[in-house]
């Protein structure tokens, strides 16, 4: 067994992980584990921009940005966190500029800004130009710039090291009122070296989870193959709750049938959505800001057009993104990559033809609950000393029930920086927690079980069925019946998962083995998502229940929290415990959400 | 340029512009993959798979079909699957390509499609190579902005023209398709390689950067830009359409100009 | 049980040795060589075509080309210089070209070294001999057909 000792270990090398590493690496002995290479992370696929109220091109201020974020999240946003994010957005953009990020510039040489869905002037009066961008490859530039600065600061990366377990110990602790509870403390991380198949223990004073989302529970998704929710799954299995997992964002404009993302910037730059009759149908659903309404509304409107028979194509199953009225030169300057995607993958020329699009699973709003310092909650009242999370894996919650476009790039920069800073500061004063007696025993058993399994089921077949049922039953429109169907299907898939076998039994680059482990996380998360969705009998943001089409602040203005608990039961599913957490309000009272 | 002025029509005649999509054809292919697993045998060998694929499928889909339905031990790297993460550079029919950006229908499907690991880097297993030498070269050219003088409190200004100067080389995704297509790199792996030079170019021509001289000094090495023979393999291989050879030529000129 | 290590370097620790670059000598040799190739190339185009035109096209053309013709040219300092420049530039240009080919195609340092030694030796011999011939050329060798010698 190899044991490495670091002050701070960061799991994941996407935007949040590397932003944290830049802070932490300059303050403490830091290692970054990534199951890929840092520049392969899915931050690089983000396109449109990163919002900050710089007011470089028109009047703006961070308070409007806060409001838009809260309204966009249908008021399920923790308002203190949203305020911090909008306020620190400005520095986050300037930090990136100083690190060398090549933003597009205005004629005066300032950072240029463009419109984006849900971002408005003066509390919803009109769209505002708030998104700082670099063509339609802002995420790529952010990822590269952060990696470049990690190289500059000599951050130690462990490439192709999969995190498979979080090592925690529990101690008895006393509350102020004298009652006792079990306080979790973090000891380290267990990691699997893909190249050799060896397990490594990383003992650390603080651990930062920045492992990204879990879009691969769905079939049609803009997410990478590797976004299998490992971080959420690991935390969940170690008794850490998952917050608001029923809220998944479906991005309106994925390439039809493929799910490849076409940035909202396409609409920010003037692109519009049309149905089979050539109508600009968003005029009906969001008369003021039309195609630039938040993503949940646009995605639902698109799905509704298709349902009502106004879809395009031979199967009438998509709508069209029309850029044909824009100048080709303008498209080339502002949207070069996404038009290239349309040409490569669908053979459509966006200069002259509208592009077939349909909603695609894009972002998990929920995740590991954290406070504004990035500290992970073990329950509503207590955080886990030394454990931090940032980015899509975390739920601060700044996105509430629906994330606004560009706010994820902002989230990773603002809260990545915070998590990295606080993790390093904590490590300065804290001591190492002793490792558990046999730190590898559970991970080893997990891997041995998969490696030695001699069942009849193939991993890919189970994963496909999982993705199919999630697409069919847990997508833009949900009802109690469809969700129950999904839950039931997942139970069936779990039984099949117990009867798998893999073909690669080796130690070297055994991706067959890892795919099986990842499927385990996907099944856990799909179940948590579905069961949370079943509990939320209302429609809010990304979660739309046709049997409960209205928002119900009375019963559901609160975060869902799901715990793994062998003794409990939730919606008829054993092993899950349900709880809620209040939403933090500062100055915005819930209003009806109209655009 | 502004688009705000023109408000698009709220209804148009779709027949006039047409819309993409239609029937998706289906065909059989033979995928010939270079297999190598030192745990089993020191010898690499070709293995054929016959697959039924669709017109919209990419080489990556074919590899997935093999891995998921035929032989789970086939190993290759991939992540985003749309040409932005740079994981799946490989030699497809003898040319360096991203598997996720190469549509099967664009290849000659009447003959076997050969897929092998990129050249010049040590093969670890099947299509996976050791990327460390590649990233080592990248790290050596100081791929980060260095600015001297006091840090401004706000943003640095940069004119759109200055920004445009290095735009092409900011697109690099470090997939190694260029470096591993370069015959000079194949020889002994000592050449810095196109990717490292492209990333140096990105900073040398950034008006905000002050360390251009140091990078030019590094690339003036005997394994630096002067080993480029302008075979254009790199430009041809780049999945991002970067004019790699041109960028190298510009760096050469900059080294010369600095010495004069 | 556990072997605890304070620091094990990440993947780069096991980089294949052949990729480690030996820090080269400082200096502009490669750049000068590169520049020389371009400049000498330009000169050679003029020199070689001038040479070809005078020898093969002007006057009687190829039919007038004999020992006397060459001797006549080398009696003129301009043509002495012309041919000397052509010899040196072509030899250095060619040698440097072959040197880069050896660098590109020989993958062992020893092989490279010996191939280059042979190359440099051949170059020196040819350049020295050629230079000597141009400056010490005597048209009146025994049996010379030229009238001036009789």
TrEMBL record, chain A:
Principal place of residence? membrane
The answer to whether keyword Plastid applies is no
Domain (Fumarate reductase/succinate dehydrogenase flavoprotein-like C-terminal) ranges: 463-595
Signal peptide region: none
Q: Where in the cell is it found?
A: Membrane
Sorted alphabetically, the keyword list is: Electron transport, FAD, Flavoprotein, Membrane, Oxidoreductase, Transport, Tricarboxylic acid cycle
What are the required cofactors? FAD
Membrane topology per record: Peripheral membrane protein
Task: Please report the stretch or stretches of sequence annotated as the FAD-dependent oxidoreductase 2 FAD-binding domain.
Answer: 7-409
Entry EC number(s): 1.3.5.1
PROSITE patterns recorded: FRD_SDH_FAD_BINDING
The record lists the catalysed reaction(s) as: a quinone + succinate = fumarate + a quinol
* Top EC class for this record: oxidoreductase
Q: One Pfam family for this entry, by name?
A: FAD_binding_2
Pathway(s) of this molecule: Carbohydrate metabolism; tricarboxylic acid cycle; fumarate from succinate (bacterial route): step 1/1
Similarity field: Belongs to the FAD-dependent oxidoreductase 2 family. FRD/SDH subfamily.
UniProt cross-references to PANTHER family, sorted A to Z: SUCCINATE DEHYDROGENASE 2 FLAVOPROTEIN SUBUNIT, SUCCINATE DEHYDROGENASE [UBIQUINONE] FLAVOPROTEIN SUBUNIT, MITOCHONDRIAL
Name of the molecule in the record: Succinate dehydrogenase flavoprotein subunit
Q: Which organism is it from?
A: Zhihengliuella salsuginis
Chain's gene name: sdhA
UniProtKB/TrEMBL annotation, chain B:
- This chain belongs to which protein, by name? Fumarate reductase iron-sulfur subunit
Give, as in the UniProt entry, the pathway in which the protein acts. Carbohydrate metabolism; tricarboxylic acid cycle
Q: Which EC main class describes this enzyme? A: oxidoreductase
The UniProt record lists the EC number as 1.3.5.1
Sorted alphabetically, the keyword list is: 2Fe-2S, 3Fe-4S, 4Fe-4S, Iron, Iron-sulfur, Metal-binding, Oxidoreductase, Tricarboxylic acid cycle
The record lists the lineage as: Bacteria, Bacillati, Actinomycetota, Actinomycetes, Micrococcales
**Could you confirm whether the keyword Iron-sulfur appears in this record?**
yes
Record organism: Zhihengliuella salsuginis
Domain of life assignment: Bacteria
**What is this enzyme's catalytic activity, as reactions?**
a menaquinone + succinate = a menaquinol + fumarate
UniProtKB/TrEMBL annotation, chain C:
**Principal location:** membrane
Q: Does the keyword Cytoplasm apply?
A: no
Q: Which InterPro entries match?
A: SQR/QFR_C/D, SuccDH_FuR_B_TM-su
- For this protein, the parts annotated as crossing the membrane are 35-58, 78-98, 118-137
Q: Cite the entry's keywords alphabetically.
A: Heme, Iron, Membrane, Metal-binding, Transmembrane, Transmembrane helix
Localization (cell): Membrane
What Pfam families is this protein classified in? Sdh_cyt (PF01127)
> What is the protein name given in its UniProt record?
Succinate dehydrogenase
What is the protein's species of origin?
Zhihengliuella salsuginis
